[in-house]
Design brief:
four-stranded antiparallel sheet; alpha+beta; single chain; 11 helices; rod-shaped; 4 strands; about 290 residues
């Protein structure tokens, strides 16, 4: 862009304000996109952790009978080809888990707490044989599928993912609308100058190219500022999530592909702003000048 072009277009305050508008739009869009990508990763990690995991509860009032049934059930499950791993949950671990509700009473050996067996199924194995084997030994045994009782959490994460992606689309639409308004304001500001340029032989495409390059520059500068701000916020939130030590929240991470998409977003903003400015200016010039 020549110095004369910059002087003409810099007279339009609306175009200069595009730098700040694009920075804010891109900042919010990157955060929404990171939220969507992060929750998608968390949902997939949760699904991988829970797929094929079962817990067998051996229910029996007598501690001696319960422990005997648990040992028999464990041996039967380990013999199944569908079972990759089966382990008996330690009594001390159960007591610690129940401590918030039972307090010191959880240490009572006569307390009718079911014996728990954690089961990991082989890849693509059906849970039917495990359920049948457990109930053959004890008809009152229960088999809980982790994936079933955690499905509401997975559904909520999926909802957050789609909501975040919808926000990204809305922000893209809003950005395009802002560019259209800024381009029209620039046309009105420079109407007299554009008429002189037309009389000197300039075409609509040549005039539009001036606005297009200026808005592209504003979008690029705003993209750098907004991207840097969003990156700082994401790094801060990442350190806070890591400090929580939560397995569920710890799954909200971004892999290399996700970071690649986030890097492409500022470029997409520049392309969107450039195309919107070109189409708007050319259409307006052909209609009114």
């Amino acid at each position: 862009m020549s110095g004369a072009d910059r002087r003409v277009l810099d007279e339009a305050g609306g175009l200069r304000a595009m730098t700040w508008v694009m920075a804010i739009m891109l900042f919010l869009t990157l955060l929404a996109a990171a939220l969507g990508l992060g929750t998608r990763q968390s949902a997939q990690a949760l699904e991988r952790q829970l797929a094929g995991r079962l817990t067998v509860q051996v229910v029996e009032g007598s501690p001696a009978t319960r422990d005997a049934l648990a040992r028999r059930t464990l041996a039967a499950l380990r013999a199944l080809p569908q079972v990759r791993r089966a382990t008996l949950v330690d009594r001390a671990e159960l007591t610690h888990t129940l401590a918030p509700w039972l307090g010191d009473a959880g240490d009572d050996a006569d307390l009718p707490v079911p014996a728990m067996i954690d089961v990991d199924l082989a890849a693509a194995a059906a849970p039917g044989p495990v359920i049948a084997a457990a109930r053959r030994i004890s008809a009152v045994s229960r088999v809980d599928r982790h994936q079933r009782w955690m499905s509401p959490v997975g559904g909520f994460l999926d909802t957050l993912t789609w909501l975040a992606f919808a926000l990204v689309l809305l922000m893209l639409g809003a950005t395009g609308a802002v560019v259209v308004l800024a381009a029209r304001a620039g046309l009105e500001t420079h109407r007299a100058t554009i008429e002189v340029m037309h009389m000197l032989g300039s075409t609509d495409v040549q005039v539009a190219r001036l606005f297009q390059r200026r808005i592209a520059l504003d979008a690029a500068l705003g993209g750098v500022a907004g991207g840097a701000g969003a990156l700082a916020v994401l790094l801060f939130l990442g350190t806070r999530l890591a400090a929580l030590g939560s397995e569920l929240l710890g799954g909200i991470t971004l892999d290399a592909g996700d970071w690649g998409l986030l890097v492409l977003l500022p470029l997409g903003f520049v392309v969107l702003a450039t195309l919107a400015a070109r189409v708007t200016v050319v259409a307006a010039l052909r209609r009114s000048l």
